Amino acid sequence: MKSLPAFIKTSVYSGLAGLLASTLPLSPAFAGNDPLTTVAEQSGFLKTGRYEEVEKLCLAFQKNYPREVRCLEFGRTPEGRPMLALLATRTGVFQAGEATKRNLPVTLIQGGIHAGEIDGKDAGFLALREVLDNKAAPNALNHQILLFVPVFNIDGHERFGAWNRPNQRGPEEMGWRTTAQNFNLNRDYVKADSAEMQAMLALFNTWNPLAVIDLHVTDGAKFEHDISIQVEPVNSGDEEMRKAGQVLRDNVIADLAKQGSLPLSFYMTFAHEDDPMSGFVDNVPPPRFSNGYLPLRNRFGMLVETHSWKDYPTRVRITHNTIISVLEQVAQHGDAWLKTAQAADQRAAQMAGLALAVTYKTSDKSKDIAFRGYAYTRNMSDVSGALMTRYDENKPQVWNVKLRDEILPDTVVTLPKAGYLIPVAYSKAVKEKLQQHGIQYSIMQKELSNVDTEQFKASKVNLQAQSFEGHQALKLQGQWESKTQTLRKGALFVPIAQAKARLVAALFEPSAPDALVNWGWFNGAFERKEYMEAYVAEDVARQQLASDAQLKAAFEKKIADEPEFAKSPSARLEFFAQRHSSWDQRYQVYPVLRLNTRP
After folding, report:
1. Picking from 16-20, 72-76, 400-404, which range would have the lowest pLDDT averaged per residue?
2. End-to-end CA distance of the chain, in Å?
3. What is the C-alpha separation between 227 and 256, in angstroms, rounded?
4. Sheet containing 448-463: which strands, arranged edge to edge?
């Protein structure tokens, strides 16, 4: 018989070892007779299959487990490939509406958002077969609905090749990080530019998963720790959901530790690149990331990162163990956690006028940790000319380093008492974005006259020099100010009184990191379109100076106090142009309004 992969011999999880021993092939011909055995298993976890295998397995699981599994297509990629999910449950419920009626928790496990990091696909098929065969978590599917998306970034998966991830050990070939349109899907949850993300958000809106488990492989240095488990809400979001999120995180970490892993609760990247002694800094991810986005919907987002320098059999085993643990945790606690999430929805709908943190920061407070690394040297490189670190994996070494993990609110906004109003000129594109996120809104069917609003006037606009994820992003400085306005019919009103209030604020508050305005959606509003010729501005300036002594004094003071202004002819003339009736009152005004009274 063919010898077993090394991780089977050393795994402390005997159930997985037994399963693999029974399914690894005696010969290639034998392997081909089992429609549920993956290319990964057949190769001793040296290879991973192409997407054609996912399509075949999805149907094969449905055929072999007709009472428990459905193969669902929930979208198409830009290159026309079907986006597939396996729905598995023993509740007898295969419709989202019925799941909502019966208050069944839904767990969505997502592999291959970065298609070179493909552990989740092979581990997920293996774990699902075990669960369905009652060889692991035998009762878990009695208490929940599982949605397993083997590969999220499918077009990237099919950009197949060796060394697509040169800092990762196995499989022999793998997919690519980004999509066919070069989107990084784990930067796309809020802006949702990609067809793939729009399909995933539609799946979220349909099934409203309690927990979304996003399976990755980390980058970075070499060390002994093999996985990190990060969950939000823990440091952000609804207070009661934070407590439940910590239980989920800590229980999964405890399960993995019992099985021989060395799990941690923070992303294991150094505070200063390539310097182990700089320690680690935990944080709250912005909502462009999966585990930053889900808390805005009052649901759990779990980021799973196996360590890239562990070999593929080891990483698949650990990812498998994580999936089993998550299913067991949701089976045990899902009913209570779902009630907590539903209560969080109700609390969010009552947040009008309250303070809300839209960014978080890590304090300078630290604690000492014993981190299991390797002996290393740091020497100047004659190639790069930089100080480079080299690790000796034959010499485990404990690094006594600092961890900064006290996370505090940073940018805090006061939410409007009613909601946000989008003028009709911008309503079409914004409406599509609201629909993608499942956010409630209404269309004003008549003109709104003399409405008391708050508008954001930018004092400074910083445009990013280089395109990022297909956008010329910007950052605004300024403030909200009161203004009475009249708006044509067709404007969109987005109430803050809804379960996704946090997500609404994340879309429309300029200080929120992934607000649409910061992704460049409204860049035209910050472009100067009308000018006054210098000789005309000169005449206007003299008229204003002659007629307004207070203005004259302000001008002279500005010249005295600000040398850069004093020596700039254009700035001096613009001082007066801004005070002329021809000045564009819409210039540098963010075209989304806040309302404290519902229209």
Report:
1. 16-20
2. 75
3. 9
4. 442-443, 492-495, 419-422, 589-595, 448-463, 474-487
Q: What's 512's DSSP letter?
A: S
Residue 22: pLDDT above 50? Answer: no
Angstrom distance (rounded) from CA 78 to CA 154: 10
Q: Which residues contact 299 (CB under 8 A, 6 or more apart)?
A: 208, 209, 210, 211, 212, 341
Q: Strand 355-357 vs strand 300-306: parallel, antiparallel, or unpaired? A: unpaired
Peptide bond into 35 cis (omega under 30): no
Q: Taking a C-beta distance cutoff of 8 angstroms, is the pair 490, 425 a contact?
A: no
Nearest residue to 554 (alpha-carbon basis) of 569, 565, 539, 567 = 565
3-state secondary structure of 418: coil
pTM higher than 0.85 = yes
d(CA 196, CA 185): 8
pLDDT in tens, 216-231: 999 889 999 999 999 9
Tokens of 61: 């699981």
* Cα-only R_g, the chain: 28
Write the DSSP string, 101-170.
Answer: HTT--EEEEE--SSTT--HHHHHHHHHHHHHHTTSSSTTGGGS-EEEEES-SSHHHHTS-BTTSSTTS--
Q: 466-488 pLDDT, tens per residue? A: 999 999 999 999 999 999 999 99
349-383 as b/e, with b when 16 or more CB fall inside 10 Å? bebbeeebbbebebeeebeebebebbebeeeeeee
Q: d(Cα 76, Cα 196) in Å, to the nearest integer?
A: 7
Q: Which tokens go with 532?
A: 């006054």
Angle between helices 501-508 and 427-437 (to 10 degrees): 140
CB 171 within 8 A of CB 45: yes
Measured between alpha carbons, how far is 376 from 395 in angstroms, rounded to an integer? 9
